[in-house]
Amino acid sequence: MKLSISRDQLLKPLQQVSGVVEKRQTLPVLANVLMVVDAGKLALTGTDLEVELIARTELAGEFADGEITVPARKLLDICKSLPASAEIELKQDGQKLVLKSGKSRFTLATLPANEFPNLEEGVGAFSFSITQKGLKKLIDKTSFAMAQQDVRYYLNGMLFEVTAGRLRTVATDGHRLAMCDADAQTDAVERMQVIVPRKGVQELARLLNDDDGIVTITLGSNHIRATVGNVTFTSKLIDGKFPDYERVLPKGGDKTVLANREELRHSLTRAAILSNEKFRGIRLQLTPDMLRIQANNPDQEEAEEDVTVEYNGASLEIGFNVQYLMDVLGVLDNTTAKFTLGDSNSSALVQDAEGGSSVYVVMPMRL
């Protein structure tokens, strides 16, 4: 295998795939990136056995077909350190890969390409497409609510639900829930649900731009595959049943609060400084047109913030994890946030005041 390529042309696909390469891996070959030269194209593949990324780029210079695996981190660091306009020559020399650029020469250890694992594709594939902007919005609006290392393994990821013309993402850690909808080019006859693991969601989000470029998504029985430009992303799915999230959405809340989103977020941020570092609890006291935020900690320190709101219901006192409220206010779009509340033991429903495609549920805390 050999090829000539510009530094920038090699660096971008290398950066795209190296994020998935495990730093602490059980198999030595998983620290490597697979390089395949075939029919005038270079394909770079990185995997951790759960997520696989393949980035392709056209070769303009001379090349010879072949395949080899090389240490991903070292190759990336070498490319980064070369001048922006550098031309790179790569050539396989027995069990080594020789990289030349200008007056620089590097010899890298390699492992055979046949040792490199590839993710098996499942059966029952169903494809649809969505804009990069639409998919990025879905992930950005909901990913913060995914669980981390929960024993309920099906919460350590994000639900992708496909219906006719729609894609919905849902994430929950058992204390809060985030849900968002977007238009998608899908002719699904019945509702399809898959759970994408946390790392898969994060790697997919890294590939997306805020534009109208099309992402083609294929759902298999145990894999999801997405094609974004010249990159193919594949992730195993979490085998489990996601909770019936529609039952979690609070119904019948009779108290509606409208608040300036930024003003409320800043007040919560200040009050949070003196909240209990472990439990992060704050107390909200609602009276007509006024919200009082109170926080205290085991050192007997206290914070109090008054925020003017639109509210004309009965007085209410309720506790929340302040971080959960700040996370939601950070992803809403409108200047005004709408809270729908029941009593001090009921979950809060939070959304943009003018409607919108996302809905959030935050469970109360006993203080």
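The record above closes out task 2.4. Task 2.5 opens with a second protein, given below.
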Amino acid sequence: MARTSAQRLKGFRDFLPQTMALRKHVIGTFERVFQTYGFLPWETPTLEYAETFDGKSSEEAQTLMYRFADRGGREVALRYDLTVPLARVIGMHPDLPMPFKRYHIAPVWRAERPQRGRFREFWQCDVDTVGTAQPSADAEILAVVSECLTAVGFSSYRIALNNRKTLSALARYSGASPNQARHIYRSIDKLSKIGADGVRAELQDAGLTGEASDRVLDLVSIEGDNSEILDTMERYLAADPEGVAGVQEMRAVLDLLPCFGVEPRVCTVDPALARGLDYYTGIVFETLVEEPKVGSVTGGGRYDDLVGAFAGRQLPTVGTSLGMERIMEVLEELHLTQAPRSAAAVLVTVWDETALPDALTLSMELRLAGVPTEIYLGTPGNLRRQLAHADKLGIPLAILAGPDERVRDEVTVRDMVTGEQRAMGRQGVAVRVHAMMQGMPAQ
């Protein structure tokens, strides 16, 4: 048979078991945090009608979306994110209890130019609360972000906070036209990358005067602690009711965070934070890590109009997306968390063909006792090869039962890390091994 060339599409990845074990560990950790706060799981289809996304996503999203006609001639699209499907499902199920809290962990697809931290297929972990405009909902989402990152090993991160209402007021304060506002948002969002001179140049290229550009930079460059920054922003925007409302919303959320156990240093006001998606209407936030430089690892905010566009009624919503790929990159590079090397805790060895039935029976006894167990499925015999197999997979214990053990109605349990061995009676060995795995003395 001719060999087929083995290749993979650019921007897509294979996850071998060791990598997948860590991803499953992180996803499981996130799910436990989400459920602790009362968020419910759900799933939506991979494919949606293309028109579902029309007018609901940014211009960039439209260009990066995988759209095509299926075999039935329908115009469909692979889901670009998990937010628009959320809005579509809520619109189709008006009887859901409000406020409604859900989480969704699934792959999405974008025709990106592949680069570090950017792939054409990647996973998002979203949590959203639908049907309330209370600042406690915003604060809870920020608390979930903080707890998730801490739970998987992050210790140095910062959640940057701003409000689209203050950004709109900033554009008006500068004297920019409505058409120039979008250019302002895009430029100031790059302040940390291109500096004040770079932002000024971009603003003037967009048609802003030097005076208008300086006004923008004055406001987004405010320094101090959260209270000082908010007070200064409020003074700048005192004549703009919407801008003042945005400042007050941020202050209300920050005041609630200590009640969730979030340390004040974790969340900081950043007047230059804009976020790219057009559907945000209030609080916006991103989580940044200093090392490695992968950009934001989470992002989200309040979007009070998108869900209502499908539901036909006002449904204020706030949520966040935890960027799985960037989070994994940080965890792997900094060795912040370790997943088990193997799904099995025990390898049952097989001395010879005559020992196979008892080895299989013992394996099932261990599994029924709650001990993940693998039995050696290669050719029986050659104990050294079987122990090397356990060692390669990172299985912590091996059970040996040769002729001598069978005569004494015993097994030998070998610690694969230390090499220590102990004999145990064959009857009840599963219970005793389970006690060992729980860190309790085997009786």
